[in-house]
Every structure is written in C-alpha cells, then in structure tokens.
Design goal:
The chain is mostly helical. The protein folds into 2 domains: 159 residues, Ribonuclease iii, N-terminal Endonuclease Domain, Chain A; 64 residues, 2-Layer Sandwich (Double Stranded RNA Binding Domain), CATH 3.30.160. 56% of the residues lie in helices and 10% in strands. Helix 2 runs antiparallel to helix 7, helix 3 packs across helix 7 and helix 7 runs antiparallel to helix 8. The longest helix is centred in the first third of the chain and has 22 residues. The N and C termini lie far apart (55 Å).
Length: 236
Amino acid sequence: MSKKSSTYALSQLENILGVSFHDPNLLRKAITHSSFEGGGPLAGNERLEFLGDAVLKLTCAWYFYENHPVLAEGELSAIVGQVVSEKSLASAAVRIGLSRFLMISQSLEMTGGRELPSVLADAFEATIGAVFLDQGLCEARDFVVDKLHLDAIDTNECLKEASFRNFKAELQELLQKRKKPLPEYRVVSEDGPDHDKTFTVSVFSEKTAVGRGIGKTKKEAEQAAAEAALGLVTFD
C-alpha cells in the first residue's frame, strides 16, 4: 500500500474496527511493518506492538478473572495463554481483514509476508496499542473483548488445548526447591529475515548454561531451552 492511498485506506479500516481515531497517525503506524520503505524498527509498529501486548494480556486476565470466578490461577493462566497466542491473534486479524491494509516492503510482499501469522499477530497487537493511546484503556478493553470474541470462548476447550507442560514454570519451580537463583534466558542468535526468524536461546542457572533451545519465536525457544535443562538430573 502506498502512502498516497493510505489516508483513504485508514478511513476504511477505522470503519471496520469501529474506532474513530483522534490521531490517525497512530493507526497508520500500527499497520506499518518495519520493512516498509526501509524504515526500520522505530519507523514500524514494533513499539506499539509491545504496548498492545501488555494491554491485551491485562484485558484478558481481567476478563476471565471477572467472568469465571471458579477458575484457579493455573487455569486462568492457561486460558489467557491460548487467547493471546500468535495463532489466535492472527485469526482475529484475518477475521477483520487486516492484511490488506498492511504497509510492508515489496520484498516481503513477494514472499507472501502479508499473510504471515507473525506479521498479522504483531499488527493486531500494535492496533490494540494504538487504540489504547488514542482512546484510553476502557475503549481498548472493549476492543479486545469484541475483536477476540472473549464472551464466546469455550474455556473448557481452551484448557484441553493448553494441556501441555510449561517447561519454564517447571524449571523455575525446580531451581527454587534447590535454593538456586531463578533461571535467566538469553538470546544467543537470531537467524533468517525479519519476517521469518529463528531464535536460539540459552538458559542459565547462576552463571552456567544448563539448556539451549531453538524456536520461531523467543517464547518457543525459551520453552525448548527449559525443556532441555529439565533433562538434566542435577545442576552442578
């Protein structure tokens, strides 16, 4: 999408989102990928994505806490994890047709980057951040509840899908029991283009690396590193 045509597109997107922005530049930034015209991270939506991620998690935690009083802390955590996953956010972005509004580089366009789940999920989170800055927390909260259909989520189904081991939590618990410092995760390397990175993460106990993992996101790599660390009987 060219900058020249973006003003009309923004108006269309506002109608779809159901939000009339006081500052349309916030919405424009939310749908601008860091690759667009070589702008880089600061010119793209990465900072808004960071903010939107925090608003999203707060909203989901609040919503399920308030509306499902019988759920335990672990269950709430598992459900929120499912709702804020890349898969869930990308699906929401597809539902509202966000991909056709994204401003991305030509090279990313040619490789199908407009439809990449990671790109869509990031843009959706950035849009939440833009709504928060422009309209406030209450409007952003309503936006998340509406666009993610939180009222229609089957919590039992979420818990079934989330019935996997949380290796990071297990590792932390193990180290605490052994009176050791909490694990520290460090990104060792990032390989591949911006839209299709692979992360390598090492997890340290004190100053010793006790596990290493690889994933398409930092979170996946951290889980893999924790799983590798748990394979060790002791941490000497």
